[in-house]
Amino acid sequence: MWLSIEKEYRKMIVNNVWCSNCSDAVSIAQYVIQEHSTGIVLQGKCKNCGQEVARVVDFEN
After folding, report:
1. Three-state SS for 4?
2. I need a labelling partner for 33 at 20 to 30 A (CA). Which of 3, 15, 23, 46 fits?
3. 53, exposed or middle or buried, with CB in 10 Å at 0-12, 13-18, 19+?
4. Element (H, E) at 58
5. Is the pLDDT of residue 61 over 70?
6. Contact assessment for residue 19 and residue 43, using Cβ atoms and an 8 Å cutoff
7. What does pTM read for this prediction?
8. Alpha carbon of 31 to those of 13, 60, 61: distances in Å?
């Protein structure tokens, strides 16, 4: 699923993850991708502070 998203959009997703510690949208680092039937979840660390962060990407059926 992740690779089915255009490279440009994947980059936008990776660089737009909410960090509650920074109270801002940040880049995610050291992330893993979990695929689900409704979409994907990126789980990793905030590139700025190291706090654990996640980004959910839902796909329409």
Report:
1. helix
2. 23
3. buried
4. strand 52-58
5. no
6. no
7. 0.87
8. 12, 23, 25
The pLDDT tens digits of the residues spanning 11-32 come to 999 999 999 999 999 999 999 9
Q: What is the pLDDT of residues 32-56, one digit of tens each?
A: 999 988 899 999 999 999 999 999 9
Domain span holding position 13: 2-58
Which ranges of 1-61 would DSSP assign to H, the alpha helix? 7-14
List residues bridging with 36 in a β-sheet.
39
CA dihedral of residues 50, 54, 3, 13 (deg, nearest 10): -80
Residue 21 is classified by DSSP as: T
Determine contact, residues 39/1, Cβ cutoff 8 Å.
yes
2 by DSSP, 3-state: which? helix
Total domain count, the chain: 1
